[in-house]
Write a structure and sequence with these properties.
The chain is mainly α. Helices cover 73% and strands 0% of the residues. It is globular. The two termini are 16 Å apart.
Length: 305
């Protein structure tokens, strides 16, 4: 629990501020896209967009820091790519190939299939990367799957078909909007409208698929609950929960609220300190510490005996 809390504070309260400060400074240095084009006359005009502001700001770094930032960007890129390649290969081998195509084979065989799957995923990712023109298109590919990733901790009925159908539909919707939607004469007022429509369609399909397919076996659900310990209220119907003591659900809800308060107070408190508003920063800092203290006091009440 402590590691999870620290991750969320570091991820949401501390890490965004260097980006935010660079973004605010870029609004002063490059107030318009024309100013970026003027500062970099040799750039292809087709790539001059708002997301070019961050790399444009790198020219103000001294050479040593510039090399460090470039190395950090490369490290972040490679760590993300390697994680998703291993994740994808495990999906293909453990969830599909080993179960339905070639069960009972030796581990060396599955390792070979995983390596070949990784090569195929790299090729597919390269094609998708050449197709993408901005970051918003990447977000549209998985639009609508986030609700499943949240609900699976709270609702026992989410199964493998829920996630598979959501991933397929969200990808199909993204392809539709990219290649078909305008070609057939349809329009939407904004990219945000496309995103919302994609989320709505994906959610409707995966919910229908969930209710139409068989639920996961009770033994598997019980094993998942025992290992992960999700919120008990949504699991009591099918498994033996371990947080049935009086006040357990209330304590868990209060712990969640205190955790959110600690993270967001730390986020805005850091911003106030960076902006020189030290009074507000002190109030928010005290709020974050008080929420964190209350959280650690109440956590034992959410833990099974």
């Amino acid at each position: 629990m402590g590691a999870t809390l620290w991750f969320n504070i570091a991820h949401y309260a501390l890490r965004p501020w260097p980006w935010i400060l660079v973004a605010l400074a870029s609004l002063v240095v490059y107030p318009t896209l024309d100013s970026i084009a003027e500062a970099f006359p040799h750039l292809d005009p087709s790539i001059i967009r708002h997301d070019l502001a961050y790399p444009a700001m790198l020219v103000f770094l001294p050479h040593g820091l510039l090399g460090l930032v470039v190395a950090s960007l490369a490290a972040a890129l490679m760590s993300t790519i390697s994680t998703h390649l291993n994740w994808g290969a495990s999906y293909i081998v453990d969830d599909v190939y080993r179960r339905f195509v070639r069960p009972g084979r030796g581990e060396s065989h599955y390792v070979l299939v995983a390596r070949l799957s990784t090569i195929g995923l790299v090729a597919l990712a390269a094609v998708v990367a050449l197709w993408l023109e901005n970051a918003m298109q990447a977000f549209q590919i998985g639009a609508g799957t986030g609700l499943i990733f949240l609900l699976r901790w709270f609702w026992w009925r989410i199964n493998a078909w829920s996630e598979i159908s959501a991933m397929i539909v969200s990808f199909a919707v993204a392809v539709w909007f990219q290649f078909v939607h305008e070609a057939v004469g349809l329009t939407l007022p904004s990219v945000a409208a496309q995103l919302l429509l994609g989320v709505g369609l994906t959610t409707a399909v995966w919910f229908g698929i969930t209710m139409a397919t068989r639920p996961t076996e009770t033994a598997v659900l019980q094993s998942f609950y025992d290992r992960v310990r999700p919120f008990a209220r949504g699991w009591r119907r099918v498994v033996e929960t371990q947080a049935d003591e009086p006040g357990g659900a209330t304590a868990a809800l209060l712990a969640w609220m205190l955790g959110c308060a600690a993270v967001y107070a730390a986020l805005f408190g850091t911003g106030m300190a960076l902006y020189g508003r030290f009074g507000a920063a002190a109030v928010l800092g005290i709020t974050a510490l008080a929420a964190a203290y209350g959280l650690f006091r109440i956590l034992p009440r959410t833990t099974a005996k």
